[in-house]
Automatic annotation (TrEMBL):
GO terms for molecular function: ATP binding; kinase activity; thiamine binding; thiamine diphosphokinase activity. Signal peptide: none annotated. It holds the Pfam family TPK_B1_binding. CDD domains: TPK. This is Thiamine diphosphokinase. It comes from Pikeienuella piscinae. Residues 28-117 form the Thiamin pyrophosphokinase catalytic domain. The keyword Kinase applies. Residues 148-197 form the Thiamin pyrophosphokinase thiamin-binding domain. Keywords: ATP-binding, Kinase, Nucleotide-binding, Transferase. Its EC number is 2.7.6.2. GO terms for biological process: thiamine diphosphate biosynthetic process; thiamine metabolic process.
Length: 220
């Protein structure tokens, strides 16, 4: 079977999952107007997305979508990755904003968070009260004093340096099941350095632009 095509999209891409979040979708599209749906994320749309990608097991009326999208309805049959991972693998873009991957099944949500750490590109995920991004090996964020700031390691990481946090992380070994770094507070601009990728950062949802700016600066 021929490999599914890879889409190359200028600028940012909004990736839409199945959990409803109309406000989050509007926020994401304002910054990343190209819309790509992960399988059943297209079921409640009233507009036509750029593409739908996935194993198509939850997409309603796939035949009608194929008539609309043609080759941009991308069927990826393998079951070794999630629909979000399939989207990320088959789309090239400057950055991604993920919406609709929180608030549904917990196993889907955990898998989506894993995808953030596994992919080195600039990706932000919007939740009900948070934005989530990969810390990578470090980045700088233009936060405001008293902004909530959490670090959650999905694997063992060592914080080399930190600046702009009420409770510094310098030298701490963070590892799930051992020590985590949630519910910290920014004192202003935050700088972090880690020995390797593996941690997630959680910020207030109103700091979407800050999260995206920090990721794009790191990628430049």
């Amino acid at each position: 079977m021929a490999a599914a095509k890879k889409l190359r999209i200028e600028g940012g891409v909004t990736l839409l999952g199945a959990a409803p979040d109309a406000d989050g979708l509007a926020e994401a599209l304002a910054a990343a107007p190209a819309l790509v749906c992960a399988d059943g994320g297209a079921n409640n749309l009233t507009t036509v997305p750029t593409a739908i990608i996935g194993d198509l097991d939850s997409l309603e009326d796939a035949a009608a979508w194929r008539d609309r999208l043609g080759a941009h309805l991308i069927h990826v049959e393998e079951q070794d990755s999630t629909d979000l991972e399939k989207c990320l693998r088959h789309v090239e873009a400057a950055f991604f904003i993920c919406v609709g991957f929180h608030g549904g099944r917990l196993d889907h949500e955990l898998a989506a968070l894993h995808a953030l750490v596994a992919d080195p590109r600039p990706i932000v995920m919007i939740g009900a009260e948070d934005v989530v991004l990969s810390a990578g090996r470090g980045l700088e964020l233009d936060l405001q004093p008293d902004d909530r700031f959490s670090v959650f390691p999905l694997r063992r990481v060592v914080a080399g340096r930190s600046r702009g946090l009420r409770w510094p992380l310098d030298g701490l070994v963070l590892e799930a099941g051992e020590k985590i770094g949630t519910s910290n507070m920014a004192t202003g601009r935050v700088m972090l350095r880690f020995d390797r990728p593996g941690a997630l950062l959680l910020l207030p949802r109103i700091r979407l632009d800050v999260a995206l700016g920090g990721l794009l600066k790191r990628a430049a």
